[in-house]
Structure formats: structure tokens, C-alpha cells
Amino acid sequence: MYVRKDSEGKGQHAYRPSWNHCVTHNRWICYGMLGAHTSIAGGLHRAISRSRVFNGTALQIFSKNNNRWSAPDFTREQLAEWHAAAKDFPLAAIAIHDSYLINLCSPNDETFARSLDAFVDEHRRAEQLGIRLLNFHPGAACGRPAGQALDLVARQINRAHSATRASNTMSVIETTAGQGSTLGWRFEEIAAIIRQIDDASRIGVCLDTCHVFAAGYDISTETGYTETMQQFEEVIGLRHLVLFHLNDSKATLGSRVDRHEHIGRGRIGETAFRMVMADRRFASVPKVIETPKGPDLREDIENITLLRSFIPKDMQTAGA
User: Residue 97 forms beta bridges with which residues?
Assistant: First the structure.
């Protein structure tokens, strides 16, 4: 199994190349590190097969039913099917999105405990699949003071990392829209969590374009995009940015409402996505869409084709 390395020499994603690595790498360059959150219906390996439809080079999945606390352990057959599919169609990066039930700062004792157990299990499942990136929402304060809730999230992450000490997985905090008491809608909140993580090599950030726009960061113009990325650098640090969720927004700027829309058809418009795809700083950062789709994936094909059209030719040929 080949392990792709980041700039500090740490493993980013394990996969099994099935043809000449130069050919595989050229496909990643030409098509960008771009894919979709894809269904695992019929088996985990089916998500990789579905990625072929739009020639995905990145992928995001749930490792199990996202509305359940637990799931049976992977069988040998499931793992064999997954690794065979990954060998047959190598992807530059894969991420798991954790269960929506997990709230690492829940004031409910049972939910608080179950959330940690489920989060640890998600890390272990990712390790078995050879996936480094575990994307998660930081949680909802549900009446707790925000500062106290953020401290609890950091402590729970540290506990999960301690329980999976031998793992190479990374906890990836997703920026949120800020609905209700949800944490992570301001960059300062994410930075407050990161500062308390014991193992800095195992923490990263996913920037969701829909969420940051709904949270009040205006990325819809070139100036707004530039200023937002500068704020991210100053508050969090771009070195922590390891994943993008590229989604347009049905909701207005600062609405704190999370409603995804197809690329260029929402309130954000095309400019932000053109900027991301042409930004050389993020050429090697995987990007996945989470936009509405039907069973034939026609919408994914259209959205990804549009995003790929925004990649400058010189970045495709020179590998950025």
C-alpha cells in the first residue's frame, strides 16, 4: 500500500495503485483533487465504482448508516472488496464523514458518552479502510457557554486520539453555518479547539463554502474570497486546511442556515469556485461536493465538470 505524504512527510492517504504511478498522478493533476460525497448503498466499495462516472480523484463517504450510533465491524469480505476497488481505481484522497448523531460537547450525559465512543469507532473504521481524513462537525453547545463547549470538544478529540494512538487518522473539523447553538461557525471557535489538541499532526480543518457564506464570510466576490482566506490564515492557519466541501448556498449571506445548492446556481455564484479551483495554494487539497443528486449522478457530473473547467490550463499541465 502506497502512502501519499504531505509537506512535513506525514501520511495523507493510503491507497493501492493499479497502474503506472505517473499515469495515475497525471490523472489527478488533469482532473484536480476533486470528487463527491458518494453513496455506499450496496457496499462501501460501490462508492469507488460510482466515482468512475465523473472520473473522481477524491471521495467522501459515510463508513456506516450516518443516523445510527454503531454498526457491525467490517467483515473480511467487505474490507477485501474495498481495497480491491481502491486498487482498481486509485483516488488521490478519501475522507469519511462521521455520524450526524455525534455531539462531542452534549450536556446530556448519555449522548456525551456515546458520542465519544462513536467518534473513536469512526477513527478505527477509517484506519481499517486506509483513510486518513475523518471529517466531523464540532457539535452544538445546547445551553452550555460556548467557551466551555469548545473546551469539551477539544478534550473529547484528545481522548479519541489517545484511544487510537497507533492510528494515522486525522480529526478534520468542518466549518459550520452556525444554525442554533452549533459551534464552528466562526474561525476563532475552530482555532480555540485546535490550540488545545495534544497531537497537532492529527487535527485539520475542512472549509465548507456554503457554511462559511451562511456564517457571514462573503466569498461571493474576488475581494471577499481573498479577505476570507486571509482571515483563515491569520486566525487558524492555512496549514491546517486539509479538505474543502464545495457547495453553493440556497440561503443568504449571514443567514446561518445550512442549505446546499448546485455550483453557481445559489447565492454564492461561480466566482468563489473559480477562485478556489485556480488557487495554487489549494491545488493539492482534496475537494468534494455535497450537492443534491439523483441515482444516475447526472448532477454530480454537471457540477464536477463545471468545477474542472475552472482549473487553469497551466495548473493541469504543470501539476501546480
Answer: 135
Do residues 197 and 159 lie in contact, with contact meaning Cβ atoms separated by under 8 Å? Answer: no
Domain ranges of the chain: 2-318
Q: What is the pLDDT of residue 41?
A: 96
Q: What percent of the chain has pLDDT over 70?
A: 89
Query: Residues 64-79: pLDDT tens digits?
Result: 998 899 899 999 999 9
Tell me which residue of 317, 305, 310 sits closest to 55, measured CA to CA: 305
User: Could you name the CATH architecture of 2-318?
Assistant: Alpha-Beta Barrel (3.20)
Extract long-range pairs of 3-10: CB within 8 Å, 24+ residues apart: 4/92, 4/93, 8/201, 10/168, 10/201
